Amino acid sequence: MPPIPGSGLAKGLAVTLRTMTKKSVTAQYPDTQPDLPPRTRGVIGLFEENCTVCMLCARECPDWCIYIDSHKETIPAAAPGGRERSRNVLDRFAIDFALCMYCGICIEVCPFDALFWSPEFEYAETDIRELTHERDKLREWMWTVPAPPALDPGAEEPKELTAARKAADKLAATQAPPPPEPPGPGSPGPGAAPAPKTAEPGSDGQRSDGSGPGTPGPGGTAPPDSGSGPAVPPASEGGPA
Questions:
Q1: In whole angstroms, how far apart are CA 163 and each of 120, 166, 168, 173, 175?
Q2: Contact, 113 vs 56, CB < 8 A?
Q3: Average pLDDT of the residues in 125-133
Q4: Rounded Cα–Cα distance for residues 55 and 109 (Å)
Q5: Minimal CA–CA distance to 139: which of 90, 72, 69, 87?
Q6: 160: Cβ–Cβ under 8 A, 6 or more apart, which residues?
Q7: Given pLDDT bands bounded at 50, 70 and 90, which one contains residue 208?
Q8: Would you tell me how many other CB atoms lie within 10 Å of the CB of residue 101?
């Protein structure tokens, strides 16, 4: 059946009439920021602590817009007689966003998770030469990276979190105080009464042999009492009683 002449025009006018009756919605930017999807490719953030200067991102970039400079440092041996090691120290990490085509290859090939997508998009400049941002600016954008989505139920924990948790547990174990030593076979337990102290000579009338006032000494004679009168000397052997 051939179309009715003017049906297309009638459909277009019907859409116009429906739209005219609706209230217009205007995003009040920049007072109101847009609600961007979590996977928005706005800008690339750098997590500098994870970068090992492997140069893999710069080599795989199809636009050659990543500039990396580094130098080597020698790490002394951890134990006497060990071998010294050398490591790369990052000096410069810059991205020229005037050349970047936002393909995300550098983020995908990074083996140490040092590059991330950030939804930040307000970095326009009036001069194209100012679009080359150094690592300080890339580090600021790193804190705008959204958190990763939640894992599926029953999924394994990421290996980065597992390694970080093991390192934290190991550090806490080294800083914790040592456990108390168990009591020996001859030592009293925690709730036992303290052992009596051995009296010193001349303290409170106690002798070194454990005898005190009113207690017979080695010779079987009780010492005199200070409040019962003069002391009577004992009778000598073989003398009058």
A1: 30, 5, 9, 15, 19
A2: no
A3: 92
A4: 10
A5: 90
A6: 113
A7: very low
A8: 11
Mean pLDDT along residues 193-220: 51
pTM: 0.55
Query: Tokens 């953030």, residue?
Result: 45
Query: What whole-number distance in Å separates Cα of residue 133 and Cα of residue 42?
Result: 14
Q: What is the DSSP string of the chain?
A: -PPPTTHHHHHHHHHHHHHHTSPP----TTTS-----TT---EEEE-GGG-----HHHHH-TT--EEEEEEEEEEPPSSTT---EEEEEEEEEEEETTT-----HHHHH-TT--EEEE-------SSGGGGEE-HHHHHHHHTTSPPPPPPPTTPPPPHHHHHHHHHHHHHHHHHSPPPPPPP-TTS--TTSPPPPPPPPTTBTTB-TTS--TTS--TTS-PPPPTTS-SPPPPPPTTS--
Phi, psi angles (nearest 5°) of residue 229: 95, -170
Give the residue carrying structure tokens 């060990």.
82
Q: Token pair of 34, please?
A: 């847009």
Contact between residue 167 and residue 143 where contact means Cβ atoms under 8 Å apart: no
Q: What is the pLDDT of residue 188?
A: 58
Dig out the tokens for 152 from the structure: 């599926």
R_g of the chain computed on alpha carbons: 44
